[in-house]
């Protein structure tokens, strides 16, 4: 009997897979909410859902590529107050960098997608990576300058 798995089932398949199982096992899977019978209607729904998910992924990838072209190899400048010995008060965070990218380029990037090589606690220029989408990564730099009063 053909069933559509609603959850990952060990040794049978992953969620969304259409698998052939024996009748008794099919009844067990259906009764426990792990699968549903693979009728023409349920298969059509499954394929439609998969197509829409694929379309969404393609749109996300296209948007990520567009953003990558805008910000690739760019340098942003952040000013901060200085403490003693030319060190920063606190540090520059990925949130600060994300906000500055939005301000300068009009592109909203989640702070969790920004990868710093080390903490930024002094003035200077630092390279960092931005992971926009699996396989789409760009390099940027941030220049930390002293705030002029």
Describe it for me?
This protein is an alpha+beta fold. It has two domains: 2-66, Ribosomal protein L9, N-terminal domain (Ribosomal Protein L9, domain 1, 3-Layer(aba) Sandwich), CATH 3.40.5; 67-146, Ribosomal protein L9, C-terminal domain (Ribosomal Protein L9, domain 2), CATH 3.10.430.100. Helices cover 36% and strands 33% of the residues. The chain contains three helices and nine strands, in the order ββαβαββαββββ. It has helices at 23-31, 40-71, 94-105, and strands spanning 2-5, 18-20, 35-37, 75-80, 87-92, 114-116, 120-122, 124-133, 136-146. The chain has a four-stranded mixed β-sheet with strand order 4-9-8-6. Strand 8 and strand 9 (136-146) form a beta hairpin. The mean pLDDT is 91.
Q: How large is the share of residues in beta strands?
A: 25-35%
Arithmetic mean pLDDT: 91
Q: How many separate domains?
A: 2
The secondary-structure class comes to alpha+beta
CATH domain class of the largest domain: Alpha Beta
Tell how many strands the DSSP assignment holds. Answer: 9
Sheet with most strands: 4 strands, mixed
Order of helical and strand elements:
EEHEHEEHEEEE
Q: Count the helices. How many?
A: 3
Q: Report Rg.
A: 25 Å
CATH architecture of the largest domain: Roll
């Amino acid at each position: 009997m053909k069933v559509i798995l609603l959850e990952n089932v060990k040794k049978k398949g992953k969620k969304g897979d259409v698998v052939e199982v024996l009748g008794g096992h099919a009844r067990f899977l259906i009764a426990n909410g792990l699968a549903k019978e693979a009728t023409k209607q349920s298969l059509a729904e499954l394929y439609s859902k998969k197509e829409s998910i694929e379309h969404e992924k393609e749109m996300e990838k296209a948007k990520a590529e567009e953003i990558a072209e805008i910000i690739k190899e760019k340098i942003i400048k952040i000013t901060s107050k200085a403490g003693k010995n030319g060190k920063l008060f606190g540090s520059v965070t990925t949130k600060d960098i994300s906000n500055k990218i939005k301000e300068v380029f009009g592109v909203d990037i989640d702070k969790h997608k920004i990868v710093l090589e080390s903490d930024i606690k002094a003035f200077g220029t630092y390279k960092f990576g931005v992971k926009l989408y699996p396989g789409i990564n760009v390099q940027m730099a941030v220049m930390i300058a002293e705030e002029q009063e």
